[in-house]
Design a protein that fits this description.
The protein is of the alpha/beta class. It is 51% helix and 14% strand. It is built from six helices and five strands; from the N terminus they run βααβααβααββ. The chain has a five-stranded parallel sheet with strand order 3-2-1-4-5. Helix 1 packs across helix 2 and helix 5 crosses helix 6. The chain is globular.
């Protein structure tokens, strides 16, 4: 099984928020090579800058070093296939660019996108890739246009 982590999944794991146990189980399964974990570099940037803003440079870099030791395959490039799918998702549905890239990465890998993001509640937005909520999604926020 292939699982692609959204930024919120890794953040919840590190902050020990609700659902962290589900993410820890995925990490344990990846360590045991029962599944493979993946993440787009864009979603890793979301995690890193969130901690950078909250905790500062040194702490965020320590967290990044910890993350890089996890059994996660980081996709450091966005090819044309992922770019096109992310553009379609972002242009069609109300979701962030990070979610669109993460979901497009899951689609390209025939994987499951692991998130808690309410932006992905539109069933049509996830028609091509299964989404697994590691905790119940928050309600969608009104979008500023």
């Amino acid at each position: 099984m292939i699982c692609v982590l959204d930024a919120c999944a890794l953040i919840a794991h590190i902050k020990e928020e609700p659902g962290a146990d589900v993410v820890q189980n995925l990490i344990d399964e990846a360590t045991d090579r029962k599944i493979t974990l993946h993440m787009s570099i864009v979603n890793l940037i979301e995690v890193h800058y969130g901690f950078y803003n909250d905790l500062g440079k040194e702490a965020s870099h320590a967290i990044l070093e910890h993350i890089l030791k996890m059994p996660i395959q980081f996709h450091q490039t966005i090819d044309v296939k992922i770019s096109s799918e992310a553009a379609r998702l972002k242009g069609t549905y109300e979701m962030s660019l990070g979610d669109a890239i993460g979901l497009a990465t899951a689609i390209s890998l025939n994987g499951i996108f692991v998130t808690s993001d309410g932006d992905l509640l539109e069933p049509e937005a996830i028609e091509h890739a299964p989404v697994s909520w590691f905790r119940p999604p928050k309600e969608k926020k009104p979008r500023n246009k």
